[in-house]
């Protein structure tokens, strides 16, 4: 597969989600997949009974066509999305998938359309999380929190979002302060997380509207309470204030974001290992990963995409 020609100003990246009951979600898969492909759009979109979630990238006109198609569906008329730019196409292919949940928590009867926390605009977020009566919780996973968090936030150190409910139930100290402020990358995990917290008996539950991405877009760096970079689920790996691409790279063996210092480590070998996974891999694993990396390098030299990447 060859690369899509890159416009002078790069590719438009659109992150979106919308919780809504949509029993006919499976009917949208084929036309949505076809539209994305003909519009030069790549990425991943998840469809489920509870709505849509995903990130896509492509030419400006292509992204506009996909967003227009979605908003033409009555259920998605109120769909919002966040935009940023990427110098290179950040996705390998286009996937429209049917799922049980658009963000997997694994808890029955958690419905953000019925009960959810109070939205807090990025401009008001600093005041909330600086309040001594507030506990700030990062709802993301450990490989995401490793490269950036809000100052003073609690890190649950979860491996997957499914672990989050158990972590809450094990931490009775979360009831010690009246306010709970929660945040995630784009807002979707907090929709379910705050709905879950309300169901668990927490009264004052807040979440950052638009997530970290909206905060980094709107809040000036000199006023920011964010430290580090924000992990994103595409080939950019991370973004910083102003949504500019960060300097992190991804370990192709374990998918962990790497700093420049970690890339210089003798344990880092492109596509094979990094300081986070080297000890967990066998020599047989590394031989297999080296062969995969070799095939990827050969495909790149031919100007093709290696789909096993």
TrEMBL record:
Source organism, top-level taxon: Bacteria
UniProt keywords, alphabetically: Oxidoreductase, tRNA processing
Enzyme Commission (EC) number: 1.14.-.-
InterPro entries (alphabetical): Rhodanese-like_dom, Rhodanese-like_dom_sf, TrhO, TRHO_N
Pfam families: Rhodanese, UPF0176_N
The reaction(s) this protein catalyses: uridine(34) in tRNA + AH2 + O2 = 5-hydroxyuridine(34) in tRNA + A + H2O
Annotated ranges, domain Rhodanese: 130-224
Enzyme class: oxidoreductase
SUPFAM superfamilies xref list: Rhodanese/Cell cycle control phosphatase (SSF52821)
Annotated transmembrane regions: none
Function of the protein: Catalyzes oxygen-dependent 5-hydroxyuridine (ho5U) modification at position 34 in tRNAs.
HAMAP family in alphabetical order: TrhO
Family membership: Belongs to the TrhO family.
Protein name (Swiss-Prot/TrEMBL): tRNA uridine(34) hydroxylase
């Amino acid at each position: 597969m060859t690369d899509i020609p890159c416009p002078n100003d790069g590719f438009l990246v659109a992150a979106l989600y919308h919780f809504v009951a949509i029993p006919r979600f499976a009917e949208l898969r084929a036309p949505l997949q076809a539209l994305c492909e003909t519009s030069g759009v790549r990425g991943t979109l998840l469809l489920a009974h509870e709505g849509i979630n995903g990130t896509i990238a492509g030419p400006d006109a292509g992204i506009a066509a996909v967003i227009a198609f979605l908003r033409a569906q009555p259920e998605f008329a109120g769909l919002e999305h966040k935009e940023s730019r990427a110098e290179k196409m950040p996705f390998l292919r286009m996937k429209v998938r049917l799922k049980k949940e658009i963000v997997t928590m694994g808890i029955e009867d958690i419905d953000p359309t019925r009960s959810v926390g109070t939205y807090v605009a990025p401009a008001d977020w600093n005041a909330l999380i600086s309040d001594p009566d507030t506990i700030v919780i990062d709802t993301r996973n450990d490989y995401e929190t490793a490269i950036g968090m809000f100052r003073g936030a609690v890190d649950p150190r979860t491996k997957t979002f499914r672990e989050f409910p158990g972590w809450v139930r094990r931490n009775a100290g979360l009831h010690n302060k009246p306010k709970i402020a929660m945040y995630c990358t784009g807002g979707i995990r907090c929709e379910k997380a705050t709905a879950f917290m309300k169901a668990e008996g927490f009264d004052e539950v807040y979440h950052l509207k638009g997530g970290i991405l909206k905060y980094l877009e709107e809040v000036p760096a000199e006023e920011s309470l964010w430290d580090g970079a924000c992990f994103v689920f595409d080939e950019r790996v991370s973004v910083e204030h102003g949504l500019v691409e960060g300097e992190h790279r991804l370990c192709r063996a374990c998918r962990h974001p790497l700093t420049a210092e970690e890339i210089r480590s003798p344990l880092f070998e492109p596509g094979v290992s990094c300081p986070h996974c080297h000890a967990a891999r066998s020599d047989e694993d590394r031989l297999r990963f080296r062969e995969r990396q070799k095939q990827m390098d050969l495909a790149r030299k031919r100007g093709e995409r290696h789909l096993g990447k």
